[in-house]
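Sat 14:20. Reprocessing the chain from the morning session after the first attempt stalled halfway. Input below, unchanged.
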Amino acid sequence: MADPAKNRGNHSGIKAMPQHEVDARLLREKSARLRELRLAQGATQVAAEGAVAVKKKAGKARERSRSLSDWLATQQNEGRRG
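Finished this time. Tokens:
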């Protein structure tokens, strides 16, 4: 039978690390995970804002067309354009 005292220090080949190194590693992993989430969220927002901007531009173009045609009609009705 194997001696349990010999296996106590052996954790699947993991060597003992100082606590500050463990904390630093965990912080780096957490920061990387949060960075990925932030970038994914930013990309989603940019895509959504781009779609809204395209809709707004299309709406403004239509409004400008109507305004121009209204203006031209007014100009003709007032006799300013021949």
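Residues 18-77 form one domain.
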